[in-house]
Amino acid sequence: MTLQDLKSQIEHDALPNLYLVTGEETALLQKAKRTFTSIIPEEDQEMNFGSYDFASVGLDDAIADLTAPPFFGDHRVVMLTNPTFLSATGKLSEGQEKALLSAIENPVPGNMLVIFAADMKLDKRKKISKTILKAAESLDLPRLNDRQVDQALTQLLKQRSFKIDPAAKQELLLRTQASYSKVLQELPKLLAYAADTKEITSQAVDDLVIKESTAQAFDLTDLVMKGKKEAAIATYHDLVKNGEAPLRLNALLLGQFRLLLQVAGLQGSDAEAGKALSVHPYRVKLARQALRTYPLGKVRDGYLKILDMEIAMKSKQVDPLFLFESFIVNF
């Protein structure tokens, strides 16, 4: 089911007793939490709403809430986050598991348990996991792809009567790795900056939105691969001056070259490749675009040379800046 389905259930008072919420999109998960919270009127939330982080407080208080009837209301909502007992490494005591199973199989009328598993990998062999997966209404909130993020951004700006320059939009998506949640974090600053003109420019994005480290690594890789030696060295020096450790920069650069090699060997959609490599699909898209102009042999050669540079940084008393400059000159 979707967030829209959830809102429809709330409007029609057709709410099940158990929800399992999964997904990777932080902004949507937060929206789901606000939506579940809204089921209980604000004046009744102290008595009929409880939110518990299992990793911090355990399960006893949540079960106590779940087994008590609503207090002068129609519903009681119990929200449980970080349910590590559903994973392969976590567990419940025998008594806690028995109590939770009983609360799920014999729910108190009007009470609702909402389990936020986010992107946690559930151990489906466990009895408690099997029971929850079978009984729960599943709300999955996967990460939006770059096209969906683009459309959502356009819609949000349209609702506020703002425009964004195409180049500015592209740069914003690059700097946030096309993460919907990160775009939403950056948007208030951009809207305030463009309050008079109602148009977000590339200059605004450049001034206000800090580049993700992966975006910086992509820029540096692009300069290296295109043979822009002076620009690559200047960028590297600027990053070090701004506090980036040379070893970390080298690791980011190595990771970007590794990603190019991995993507070159994968078929399927950006989303499928991203899932296989545990990276955002937008990074796969950028890598595939780059591989149209980067000779694969040169990418492989660069990866090996950067690996040698990392070994030298860790094992020899050599200035990292000198190593990087030597790499650029000789590559």
From TrEMBL:
Keyword Transferase attributed: yes
Top-level taxon of the source organism: Bacteria
Its EC number(s): 2.7.7.7
Domain DNA polymerase III delta N-terminal: from-to ranges: 19-137
Keyword Nucleotide-binding on entry: no
Top-level enzyme category: transferase
Catalyzed reaction equations: DNA(n) + a 2'-deoxyribonucleoside 5'-triphosphate = DNA(n+1) + diphosphate
Gene3D superfamilies: 1.10.8.60, 1.20.272.10, P-loop containing nucleotide triphosphate hydrolases
Domain DNA polymerase III delta subunit-like C-terminal as annotated: residue spans: 216-331
Keyword line: DNA replication, DNA-directed DNA polymerase, Nucleotidyltransferase, Transferase
Family designation: Belongs to the DNA polymerase HolA subunit family.
Protein name: DNA polymerase III subunit delta
Organism of this sequence: Fructobacillus broussonetiae
Gene name of this polypeptide: holA
